[in-house]
Amino acid sequence: SNRLVVVLGDQLDRQSALFDDLDAGRDRVWMTEASAEASRDAVHQQRLVLFFAAMRHLRDELRGRGVTVEYHAIEDHPPGAAPRSLADHLADDLDRLRPAEVVMMECGDWQIEQALCAVIAERGIPLDWRDDRHFLASRADFARWAEGRRSLTMEYFYRLMRKRYGVLMEGDQPAGGAWNFDKDNRAAFGAEGPGALPAHPQFQPDALTAGVIAAVRERYADHPGDAADFNQPVTPAQARAALDDFIEHRLPAFGTWQDAIWTGEPLLFHARLSTSLNLHLLDPRDCIEQAEAAWRAGRAPLNAVEGFIRQVLGWREFIRGVYWLKMPDYAELNALGHEQAMPAFFWDGDTEMACLADAMEGLLTHGYAHHIQRLMVLGLFAQLYGVHPYAFHRWHMAMYLDAVDWVSLPNALGMSQFGDGGVVGTKPYCASGAYIDRMSNACAQCRYNPKKAVGDTACPFTTLYWDFLDRHEAQLGGNRRLQFQFRNLQRKSDAERSEIRQAAAALRTRLADHGGGG
Ligand code: SF4
User: Fold this and answer.
1) Which atom of ligand 1 is nearest to the CA of 442?
2) Quick check: ipTM above 0.85?
3) pTM value?
4) Which domains does the chain carry?
5) Cα 119 to Cα 88, 91, 115, 127, distances in angstroms
6) Which InterPro entries match (predicted)?
């Protein structure tokens, strides 16, 4: 009997459970580029190219092996017709093809998983459900670990994963005598800057990808970014080449400069492997093994290797666990009661704030920002400004090539905006312009002064930082990890605090009215 094997855009691992028993003579693979998901927000053009090009490469590989692939390409959707979701397409195809069974694997998006399962269930078609082996901790593993814990601390989960998989261990002790070396990973570049930087690999589009670029440029011309600049891996072989390049050329310096920002250098020593990981073109085990091997061979220092491995084996698995443990309620959380819309410069980069203009330029060019720009420039501004955490997540999903719902919600709504009130972090990441001044060279190029909270040259970060503490004093004043900040706030006179409130209100009005120019 015939089966329909559903393969989603973030399930492109050729070794996944979906393909364990694929029978070219009997089964069909189903893949869809959905116009509804592509046009729900102003999705970065390169994000559309990434997903569609990577999907089409898998489609053609499967067809090359004689597998029938039911494939809906974006060009098949008549321009002007109502957008159609994955679930819409699947419903039609189930009615048309009438498979005896549907094979599906755990999704990366709660809503999509629900919607697709509902369409299948409504038709009474049996569902063969598969675990996603891409992850080192299954949903059930994580739930078992979390059970009975008062708080979920990434560090304990990470240590367990290190021990379970024997990663960077010497007997039962962590390599180098410590679980983390973060104190070595916070350097700024200083006045002389980063010097000559290793080039990042460029994956030139082949004919298949070039076709996607043309289609996206035509259909989504008004979306942010330019599809023509696309140069990301779209096959497993390219993804492995990107990993090799990182291990050899950038991993050795990655740790030390992990938190540093330098204007005009959006990529620095970062791995930029998250697109390949999150589309499952790259196996996280390969990343972990190769990084550890580089350290054991004396090709990269432990602070860099441990910092990288913690992201892959610790943080990434942890937030995926949190997502499946807490959904669907997690998406609704808004602990700080923030209600603002995203200021317009988050879409077009039109702002006089040098740090934000620089981060936005990188984001528009590459669909990427490294973690400290995401968290401490773009994310920090949104949080201090008071953006609704789900609106921030939607923006994050639209603008970043590597965002998938399970990645974005805990990172964007949770860690960055503190919307979850402390599930993934213990306090909001609040900092003033002084932090950005310490970690980057942006302030020297800016018309604002990071030290000033009020007046014509007041740095909006600094204004909003004090305003944030002032607004949330009742709710957050008792948080031990914010004591230092609140003590400083309480040193300000009532008159100073009132001036800050007025400056923040004026800034919000300006940004809401004009979008850019803040
Ligand atoms: Fe950013 Fe403020 Fe520094 Fe300007 S002064 S670059 S707005 S932190």
Assistant:
1) 6
2) yes
3) 0.96
4) 3-130 (3.40.50.620), 139-200+250-326 (1.25.40.80), 345-514 (1.10.579.10)
5) 9, 6, 6, 11
6) Crypto/Photolyase_FAD-like_sf, PhrB-like, Rossmann-like_a/b/a_fold, UV-DNA_repair_photolyase
